[in-house]
Amino acid sequence: MPALPHSVTTSAPADRREEGDAEPDGAPWDEPAERREALIDAAQHGARLDRALVALVPEFSRNHLQGLIAQGCVRLDDRVADSASRKVQAGQQLSVELVPTAESRAFRPEAMALAIVHEDEDLFVIDKPAGLVVHPAAGNWQGTLLNGLLARHAAAATLPRAGIVHRLDKDTSGLMVVGKTLAAVTALTRAIAAREVHRRYLALAHGAWPESLTRIDAPLARDPRSRVRIAVVAAGRAAQTDVQCIATADVEGARFSALQCTLHTGRTHQIRVHLASKGHPLVADALYGGAPALGMQRQALHATALAFTHPRTGQEVSFHAPLPADLAPAWQRVAGSLAGA
């Protein structure tokens, strides 16, 4: 299909943000959206609207252009055209407002309160709250830890993933290390790959854990029956978790175990899947069969301890994060004490 001759103008960005989204005034990502215009010629007569747009804006995918049509960003003869299959006619004026993709708008600074446990010229150690997504992805393009890091540390924009070298699930709380320089990011990434970063978690699980100390060595991969779940799969990646039972208690007619879990690998959902595979899902982990209990409405998992070799000094450093306000009383009901938590 031949490209259409077109003109380029700009216009003020339409207000399509969801309620609660905000961006700083005067930021460079508030630049006006580009608008392109063209006359439909005889060669285009009778073509679908989305195909005519592909000729006008070849650098965007057809799927994205169909989204712009649905958003009301496309006009024919200055009237909104909201059907991708609509047939265009020779002589019509076609215009489109090129609203950026969600992905392109994701990596932007957003000021937010971050619980900084430690900061030096090389790294941050952060106590991430439950509910905070670490990295932008489908459904969470804004309001992530990465956005907060970009606002906190200007040089983060020059680093891979803003310096994030490992992640916690959205509803897992606790400690994370983030690099502030490329050298630190490289060193920390290598240390994680070499299993030299030590991470310990506290967890509440359903049922009575059968042994005082257990090593779970079970490979993990994407669940072939569900894209959002991880499962124990023979051909998966190696994964090892040490599980120590701190206490078991009956609370309101049900039995629970307070566990300390030490990671030897860092696979997605590793502790959650390993515990569930043994018939002891985390409390309130709905994805893996854990019911809400003990006042918990999110998975009862907290990254409480973190230790590694500092990338600049070469010294061993360690950090501890106490249980957050939602998990501490639940832990106390099972373990009877906050000692060690």
Characterization of the model:
- The protein is of the alpha+beta class and 341 residues long.
- The chain has six helices and 16 strands.
- The strands form three sheets. Strands 6, 7, 8, 9, 10, 13, 14, 15 and 16 form a nine-stranded mixed sheet that branches.
- A hairpin with a 3-residue loop joins strand 6 and strand 7.
- The longest helix is centred in the middle third of the chain and has 12 residues.
- The radius of gyration is 25 Å and the shape is elongated.
> Structural class per helix/strand content?
alpha+beta
Shape: elongated
| Main beta-sheet annotation | 9 strands, mixed
| Strand portion | 25-35%
- SSE topology string: EEHHEEEEEHEHEEEEEEHEEH
- Count helical runs: 6
Tell me, rounded to a whole number, the average pLDDT.
87
Report the uncertain regions: 1-31
> How far apart lie the N and C ends?
65 Å
Work out the helicity level: 10-25%
Number of strands: 16
Rg computed from alpha carbons, rounded to a whole number of angstroms = 25 Å
Name a few traits of the molecule.
341 residues, alpha+beta, five-stranded antiparallel sheet, disordered N terminus
Tell me the layout of helices and strands:
Layout: E1 7-11, E2 33-39, H1 49-56, H2 62-70, E3 74-76, E4 79-80, E5 93-98, E6 116-119, E7 123-128, H3 145-152, E8 173-179, H4 182-193, E9 198-206, E10 213-217, E11 220-222, E12 230-232, E13 240-251, E14 254-263, H5 270-277, E15 301-309, E16 316-320, H6 328-335
Concise description?
By secondary structure, the chain is of the alpha+beta class. It has 6 helices and 16 strands.
